[in-house]
Design goal:
Shape: rod-shaped
Distance between the termini: 33 Å
Number of helices: 7
Helix content: over 70%
Number of strands: 0
Order of helices and strands: HHHHHHH
Radius of gyration: 37 Å
C-alpha cells in the first residue's frame, strides 16, 4: 500500500494535510470535552438541593421517631414530621432527576461539538485521501510489472487533459502507436507525475509469442 507520494512537494502537502487533520480532531475533542464540562456544571445546584433535601429528610425522620414513643399522642405528633420527610424525599428525587437531565444534555452537547467539525473535515479530506492511496498503490504495483508503461500510457491518454497531452508534442502519441519505448515512457511519466510518484525506466516490448 502506498500511503505517501515520492516527490517532495506532493509528499510535504500530504504530510501537512494529515497533520492538520489530526490537529483539528484533537482540538475538536478538547472543545467537546470543554463543552461537556461547562454544561455539566449546571448540575451543581441540583446536587446541592439533593444533599440539603436528604439531610433535612433524615433529620425529620429522626424527629418523627423520637416523638413517636410519646404516650397517647406520639403518632399524631410524628405524622407531620413524616409528611415533611416525604416531601424532602420527593424534592431530593426531583433534584436527582434534574442532574440526570443535565448529564444527558452535557453528553449530547459535548458529542455534537466534537463530532460536527470532525465529520466535516473527514467528509472533505478522507475520500480524496483514500482515492489517492488506491490509485497510487495500483500505480506502484503496475510499475513492477512488464506491461506497466503501456497501461499507464493508455490511462494517461484516456484521462489527462488535452492541454497536458499537447505539451508532449504530436510525435509522442505517434511514437506510442508505433511502439516506441521512449514515447510510451513519456506518457506513463505524465500519469505518475500527477500522482506524485517517481518515474522509472520501463522495459517496454512485446512478449514472444
Amino acid at each position: 500500500m502506498k500511503l505517501y507520494a515520492d516527490r517532495p512537494l506532493r509528499l510535504a502537502n500530504q504530510v501537512l494535510g494529515d497533520l492538520l487533520v489530526l490537529v483539528v480532531v484533537w482540538f475538536a475533542v478538547r472543545l467537546g470535552r470543554g463543552t461537556y464540562g461547562r454544561v455539566a456544571e449546571l448540575a451543581g445546584p441540583g446536587r446541592q438541593a439533593e444533599d440539603s433535601a436528604r439531610t433535612i429528610g433524615g433529620k425529620l425522620r429522626g424527629a418523627a421517631a423520637s416523638v413517636a414513643d410519646t404516650p397517647l399522642v406520639g403518632g399524631t405528633l410524628a405524622q407531620p414530621f413524616r409528611d415533611l420527610a416525604a416531601t424532602s424525599r420527593s424534592l431530593a428525587d426531583t433534584a436527582q432527576s434534574y442532574q440526570d437531565t443535565v448529564e444527558r444534555v452535557a453528553t449530547l452537547a459535548g458529542v455534537l461539538v466534537a463530532a460536527v467539525p470532525i465529520l466535516l473535515i473527514l467528509i472533505i479530506w478522507l475520500p480524496r485521501r483514500v482515492a489517492w492511496v488506491v490509485e497510487a498503490s495500483a500505480a506502484s504495483r503496475l510499475m513492477s510489472s512488464h506491461a506497466s508503461a503501456d497501461l499507464l500510457a493508455v490511462r494517461a491518454l484516456a484521462r489527462q487533459p488535452l492541454r497536458r497531452l499537447s505539451q508532449l508534442g504530436p510525435d509522442v502519441v505517434a511514437g506510442w502507436k508505433a511502439g516506441d519505448p521512449a514515447a510510451t515512457e513519456e506518457l506513463a511519466r505524465l500519469e505518475l507525475d500527477e500522482l506524485g510518484l517517481r518515474s522509472r525506466t520501463y522495459e517496454v516490448g512485446s512478449t514472444a509469442g
